[in-house]
Every structure is written in structure tokens, then in C-alpha cells.
């Protein structure tokens, strides 16, 4: 009978069966009470369940907790992967391999460009040499000009010459000793000091002390020799001190320089 009640409540009976059951229930009070109890039970089962706020809160909390756990696990995995990458990057093996690759790259590039670079360097050296020779030729030519200003300009060209040959140095020495213009001779003395590492230049400056008569040029040469620190200049300076024709201003400068060179 309970199955029949259940089929009725679940609307599984046809019209004839439903009518027969309803007639039976109307005639039997006890059976009707049993049916009502079952009907009430079915009604409770189909009623929407009310959620316990505490249970809902607990459920939300645990869901949030699980979410945080998942995020933390992902973070740890990411950090572990990052640490592995850093460890690999900083490993001596990788550094050593990178060094080998770099050296091989440099070697390969060097092989590709060495021949061309050597040719370029050779060409550059030739051009520089040609420029030096041109400067020297211009200087020697201009030293023969009649204009004193042009001869001074020619002397000044020597400052652009890195390694003058003997012909240039001899031309400067000749200008120092023979040019008729005091300014040109003074410029030549200063130019020779620029090549003070050359013995021929120092020798010429020492010797010219005994031949130059103009006080300004004598003082210039004394200063140059004192700055060069050539002690051989002491004797010609002492001769200037002993010479009665030497100007007092020149003697004072010579005396100061002798003291410096005698230290």
C-alpha cells in the first residue's frame, strides 16, 4: 500500500487508479491517516532547506582557505622554478660555457676581419707618414720666405710633427743661429724645446747661449735649459755671469738657473 501511496504522490498513477485509491481512502479512516502522514513526509522532503548561517560561514571560510592554499602552492612552485633558473644561470658550468662561446665568437670575428683590418692599418700608417712628410716639406719651404711672420708660421708647423727628421731639426737650429729677426729666432728656440728629448736639440740650445746677444733670447734659452734639467748648461751660464757685457737681468736669470741645475 505504501508503494501505491508513493506512486500517487509522485503522480505515477493513471486516472482510473487514482480514482480507485481516492475512493478507498474516503471509505477507510485509518488508511486515510496513514496516507496523510506519508503526504506530510513528502512535503517536508520537497521543502527548500534553510542554510545554517554558521554552516554557511564555515563553508565560505573553508573555501577561502582552500583558495589561499592553492595560491600559496602555485607561488611556491613558481619560486622553486625561479630559483632553479637562477641557480642554473649562476652555475659555474654556464659561466664557463658562456666564456667559451664568447671567445669562439671573438676568434671567428677576428678571423673574418683580421686581413681587412691589417690592410686598413697599413693604409692608415702610410697616410699618416705622407702627412708628416708633407708638413715637414711645407715647413722647410716656408722657412725660406722673406716675410718674418711666414717664417714664424713655418716654425710653428713643427708642433704638429710627431717625429721630425734631422733635416727639420737642423733647419730649426740654423734659424735659431742665423735668422735676422729676433722673433723668428726666439720661436725657433721654443720649437727646439718641444723636441728636448733629442740630443741634437739640447746641444744646439746650450751652444747658442754663447753666441746670442739679445737679452730676451738669452733669457728664453736659459729658461728652456733649466726646464729641461740639462746640467751641461751650467758652464755656459757661468760664462754669461762672468761676461761683463751680459745684462744684469740675464745674469740674475742665469744665477737662478745655475742654482736649480746644481741641486
In summary, what is this structure?
By secondary structure, this protein is mostly helical.
Describe the structure.
This protein has 263 residues and is mostly helical. Among the domains are: 2-40; 164-261, Alpha Horseshoe (Leucine-rich Repeat Variant). It has twelve helices and no strands. It has helices at residues 2-9, 15-27, 29-46, 53-89, 92-142, 148-156, 166-178, 182-194, 199-208, 215-228, 234-242, 248-261. Helix 5 runs antiparallel to helix 6 (148-156). The N and C termini lie far apart (140 Å).
Shape: rod-shaped
How many helices in DSSP terms? Answer: 12
User: What is the typical, i.e. mean, pLDDT?
Assistant: 75
Structural Rg: 57 Å
CATH topology-level fold name of the domain at 164-261: Leucine-rich Repeat Variant
> What class do helices, strands and sheet pairing give?
mainly alpha
Helix content: over 70%
> Topology as H/E string?
HHHHHHHHHHHH
List keywords for this structure.
0% strand; mainly alpha; 263 residues; rod-shaped; single chain; Leucine-rich Repeat Variant
Topology of this protein?
Layout lengths: L1 H8 L5 H13 L1 H18 L6 H37 L2 H51 L5 H9 L9 H13 L3 H13 L4 H10 L6 H14 L5 H9 L5 H14 L2
Helix pairs in contact: 1-3, 2-3, 5-6, 6-8, 7-8, 7-9, 8-10, 9-10, 10-12, 11-12
Amino acid at each position: 500500500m505504501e508503494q501505491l501511496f508513493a506512486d500517487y504522490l509522485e503522480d505515477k498513477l493513471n486516472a482510473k487508479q487514482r480514482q480507485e485509491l481516492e475512493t478507498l481512502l474516503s471509505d477507510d479512516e485509518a488508511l486515510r491517516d496513514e496516507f496523510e502522514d506519508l503526504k506530510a513526509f513528502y512535503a517536508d522532503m520537497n521543502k527548500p532547506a534553510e542554510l545554517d548561517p554558521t554552516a554557511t560561514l564555515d563553508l565560505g571560510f573553508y573555501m577561502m582557505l582552500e583558495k589561499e592554499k592553492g595560491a600559496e602552492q602555485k607561488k611556491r612552485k613558481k619560486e622553486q622554478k625561479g630559483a632553479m633558473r637562477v641557480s642554473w644561470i649562476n652555475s659555474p658550468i654556464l659561466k664557463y660555457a658562456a666564456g667559451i662561446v664568447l671567445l669562439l665568437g671573438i676568434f671567428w670575428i677576428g678571423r673574418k676581419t683580421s686581413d681587412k683590418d691589417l690592410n686598413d692599418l697599413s693604409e692608415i700608417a702610410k697616410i699618416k707618414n705622407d702627412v708628416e712628410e708633407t708638413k715637414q716639406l711645407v715647413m722647410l719651404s716656408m722657412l725660406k720666405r722673406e716675410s718674418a711672420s711666414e717664417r714664424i708660421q713655418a716654425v710653428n708647423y713643427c708642433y704638429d710633427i710627431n717625429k721630425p727628421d734631422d733635416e727639420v731639426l737642423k733647419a730649426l737650429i740654423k734659424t735659431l743661429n742665423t735668422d735676422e729677426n729676433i722673433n723668428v729666432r726666439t720661436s725657433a728656440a721654443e720649437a727646439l724645446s718641444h723636441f728636448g728629448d733629442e740630443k741634437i736639440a739640447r746641444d744646439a740650445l746650450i751652444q747658442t747661449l754663447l753666441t746670442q746677444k739679445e737679452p730676451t733670447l738669452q733669457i728664453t734659452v736659459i729658461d728652456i735649459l733649466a726646464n729641461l734639467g740639462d746640467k751641461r748648461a751650467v758652464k755656459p751660464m757661468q760664462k754669461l755671469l762672468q761676461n761683463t757685457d751680459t745684462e744684469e737681468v740675464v745674469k740674475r736669470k742665469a744665477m737662478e738657473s745655475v742654482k736649480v741645475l746644481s741641486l
